[in-house]
């Protein structure tokens, strides 16, 4: 059915993405895109007491982009900003029981958009 040998977890997150959708009252937004394939991700975060209390995403992308975006939100939700900032593309792939080698680049979208959202949040509260 799909081009790659995806793990059951990838397919589960692709079929039923967690925390999908935009967020009208987000405290910050982060985006990331892959110019090579044209896929793009927008992440929304709601922050309280330096904790990501809510997070959601909108993605235009492949199976792996959808699954990794979903997993990014699961990993980041409830974490302190500084902890969430350390989430890597490898962490996201590992949490999905791995990605096919040719799809590893898709997990970069989630990690990058999350860092951008956190950077933008700090810029906003610091008035920059
Ligand atoms: Fe573009 Fe997966 S092929 S993010």
Task: Put the structure in a nutshell.
The chain has 128 residues and is an alpha+beta fold. It has five helices and three strands. A hairpin with a 4-residue loop joins β1 and β2.
Please describe what this structure looks like.
- The protein has 128 residues and is α+β, with helices and mostly antiparallel strands.
- The chain has helices at 8-15, 63-76, 81-85, 89-95, 107-125, and strands spanning 28-34, 39-48, 51-60.
- 41% of the residues lie in helices and 21% in strands.
- It has a three-stranded antiparallel β-sheet.
- Helix 4 (89-95) packs across helix 5.
- The longest helix has 19 residues, at 107-125.
- It contains five helices and three strands.
- Bound molecules: FE2/S2 (inorganic) cluster.
- FE2/S2 (inorganic) cluster is lined by residues 34, 37, 39, 61-62, 64-65, 106, 109.
- Residues 34, 37, 39, 61-62, 64-65, 106, 109 line the site of FE2/S2 (inorganic) cluster.
User: What class, by secondary structure content?
Assistant: alpha+beta
Biggest sheet features: 3 strands, antiparallel
Bound molecules: FE2/S2 (inorganic) cluster
Unreliably modeled segments: none
H/E series: HEEEHHHH
Number of H- or I-type helical stretches: 5
- Termini separation comes to 47 Å
Radius of gyration: 14 Å
The count of β-strands is: 3
Mean pLDDT: 95
Shape: globular
Strand adjacency order, main sheet: 1-2-3
The percentage helix is 40-55%
Instruction: Please indicate the percent range of residues in DSSP E strands (runs of 2 or more).
Output: 15-25%
């Amino acid at each position: 059915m799909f081009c790659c040998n995806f793990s059951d977890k990838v397919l589960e997150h692709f079929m039923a993405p967690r925390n999908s959708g935009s967020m009208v009252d987000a405290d910050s937004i982060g985006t990331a895109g892959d110019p090579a394939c044209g896929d793009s991700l927008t992440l929304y975060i709601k922050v309280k007491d330096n904790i990501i209390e809510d997070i959601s995403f909108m993605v235009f992308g492949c199976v792996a982009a959808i699954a990794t975006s979903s997993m990014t939100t699961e990993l980041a939700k409830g974490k302190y900003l500084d902890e969430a900032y350390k989430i890597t593309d490898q962490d996201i792939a590992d949490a999905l029981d791995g990605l096919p080698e040719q799809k590893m680049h898709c997990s970069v979208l989630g990690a990058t958009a999350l860092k951008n959202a956190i950077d933008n949040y700090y810029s906003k509260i610091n008035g920059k």
